[in-house]
Design goal:
The structure holds 2 protein chains of 2 kinds. Chain A is an alpha+beta fold. Chain A has helices at 31-44, 64-72, 78-82, 118-133, 167-171, 175-184, 216-240, 246-261, 267-282, 290-299, 302-311, 318-332; strands at residues 9-18, 54-58, 88-92, 97-101, 107-114, 140-141, 145-146, 158-165, 187-190, 203-208. Helix content of chain A is 45%, strand content 16%. Chain A has an 8-stranded antiparallel sheet with strand order 2-3-4-5-1-8-10-9. Chain A has a two-stranded antiparallel sheet with strand order 6-7. In chain A, helix 8 packs across helix 9 (267-282) and helix 10 packs antiparallel against helix 12 (318-332). Chain A is globular. By secondary structure, chain B is mainly α. Chain B is built from 7 helices and 2 strands; from the N terminus they run E-E-H-H-H-H-H-H-H. In chain B, a hairpin with a 2-residue loop joins strand 1 and strand 2 (22-28). The chains are: A alpha+beta, B mainly alpha. The A-B interface holds A 19, 21, 23-25, 27-28, 104, 126, 133, 137-147, 149-152, 154-156, 158, 186, 209-216, 218 and B 69-72, 80-86, 89, 96, 99-100, 103-117, 120-121, 124.
């Protein structure tokens, strides 16, 4: 069972880095090797699962907007888009598992679930890994574990991350301190699109930095422990500023008003209002379900809005399209 | 860490050479340091200096190491942070060891093991455990137990080499 702890945990993700034992890593590989990786992975995932089929996305056959839309759904990474000539992704129908092919490593297996469910996400990733390994063995060393292109991932090749919404901690300017403390524990805090990305919308990913010498279970436990701590800290601040607080009420309803009625909005402004909307929904101030708010996080991003704009000739800008998408979602939830 | 000069004894002395803006550290054993010192005392400056200069050239030599499987040089790895293939881990093992330890704080994998490696790894862990027990038995002069453990280790080692051969 997954829980979202008062709406603070947005999602849980587990990523495994794997390389085929008989091919050089992606950075020195040639297009033939890259194709071999795609063929092997596709073959491993071709049979239907109880949760649906895996579909193959070849980036070179997709336009930039469609590629970015995959990234906004967290199905591929920014790094994979940099290798769009050879990059590919196998995505399960329910979108909980995706296998990136020819990123930094031959395979990056990712499992994503809503709420606090790192262990379940890890099981999904391991199932996918077993299927992929049935076609060809992975590079493994008895001492160093799974060998990866970057030595910072070697060992388990696993990154477990929790995406947390921490608006109160951000407002109290606590995140700088938190990041420093977390680093001492072999963990790291990043923005929503991973390494180097900004913490837009007060969203943070807590994940492990260390991959060698700790078991997958220990890594999950370490990330969960820090996650629980951050949830507690955020919760204390939420309880302290009670929901009748005028400043809180004002900022939450003001953002709701903007999202509900504005005619055009840039990503930065959207993410600010989105954070207030999510806080208002989580604290039951606003009549909006959290699931709707979390859907907006994906469908109101740039590539999705651009795509929508192309489908409707009456729309003149991406920022206008964004507002139409948001308002359709929010209006559908109103009584 | 072994002495960088003789590659035999453990390094117990660190010598740092500063030339202009460059610094280089070399780790040596007591024996090699004494050799260097005696050549200095004898007034054989040239051999003393050449020992010191080799410290500087060592770093240049390191960057030039090339993986014979994928062709990547250590310098290329230093620039990109990415290795070229699994074999690079063996070729650059000396250089990677401190780096891995710095990043992860540990050097032995724990966690999932692919099916094909499971048995092999179990044997290895078992052997290491038996060896540790044997050393302890010797240290406590419990020679009977040590001999029994030695036989057990031999049998396991034979089993291990028999399993490796057919591949």
């Amino acid at each position: 069972m997954s829980e979202n702890f008062g709406g603070i945990v947005v999602s849980s993700r587990v990523r495994l880095a794997r390389n085929y034992y008989d091919l050089p890593f992606s950075n020195v590989g040639n297009p033939d090797n890259a194709q071999r990786c795609i063929d092997r992975a596709t073959k491993a995932m071709e049979s239907e699962t109880p949760n649906g089929r895996f579909s193959l996305y070849l980036l070179k056959n997709m336009n930039k907007i469609d590629q970015l839309s995959l990234m906004e759904q967290h199905l591929v990474s920014r790094d994979l888009l940099l290798h769009s000539d050879v990059g590919a992704a196998l995505v399960r129908a329910d979108r909980h598992i995706s296998v990136m092919v020819n990123e930094e490593d031959h395979l990056r297996i990712q499992a994503m679930l809503d709420g606090f469910s790192l262990s379940d996400a890890a099981s999904l990733a391991f199932d996918a890994e077993d299927r992929l390994a049935s076609v060809c063995d992975f590079s493994f060393d008895n001492q160093l574990g799974y060998l990866t292109a970057c030595p910072t991932n070697t060992g388990t090749g696993m990154r477990a991350s929790l995406m947390l919404h921490l608006p109160m901690l951000t407002r109290c300017k606590q995140m700088g301190n938190v990041s420093q403390t977390v680093a001492k524990l072999g963990l790291t805090i990043r923005g929503i699109y991973g390494e180097g990305s900004e913490a837009l919308g007060d969203l943070y990913q807590v994940s492990n930095q260390v991959t060698l010498g700790r078991t997958e279970g220990e890594i999950i436990e370490a990330v969960s422990a820090v996650g629980r701590q951050l949830i507690d800290m955020e919760n204390v601040l939420r309880v302290r500023s009670d929901k009748e607080n005028l400043d809180l009420q004002d900022s939450v309803w003001r953002s709701y008003g903007a999202l509900r009625f504005a005619k055009q909005m840039e990503t930065g402004e959207f993410m600010e209002h989105w954070s207030n909307l999510r806080l208002g929904a989580a604290m039951a101030i606003l009549p909006v379900p959290l699931t709707t708010v979390d859907e907006l996080l994906t469908v109101a991003q740039d590539a999705h809005a651009k795509k929508f704009k192309h489908s409707d000739a009456s729309l003149i800008s991406t920022n206008q399209a964004r507002c139409v998408i948001i308002q359709a979602k929010l209006a559908a939830k109103e009584d | 860490m072994l002495c960088e000069e003789c590659q035999k004894n453990p390094a117990t002395v660190a010598i740092t050479v500063i030339t202009g803006n460059e610094t280089a550290t070399r780790h040596l054993c007591q024996e090699c340091v004494e050799k260097m010192e005696s050549s200095f005392a004898k007034g054989d400056m040239s051999s003393f200096l050449s020992s010191l200069l080799s410290i500087l050239s060592k770093e240049t030599q390191e960057s030039a190491i090339r993986c014979d499987a994928c062709g990547l040089t250590y310098e290329e790895f230093q620039n990109s942070g990415k290795l070229g293939c699994a074999h690079c881990y063996e070729v650059f093992s000396e250089q990677l060891k401190p780096l891995l330890l710095r990043v992860h704080g540990r050097s032995q994998h724990a966690g999932r093991v692919p099916q094909g490696h499971r048995q092999e790894l179990q044997l290895e862990q078992c052997l290491a455990e038996l060896k540790a027990r044997m050393e302890k038995a010797v240290a406590t002069e419990n020679f009977e137990e040590a001999a029994a453990l030695r036989d057990e280790i031999r049998a396991l080692a034979e089993q291990q080499s028999a399993e490796v051969k057919p591949q």
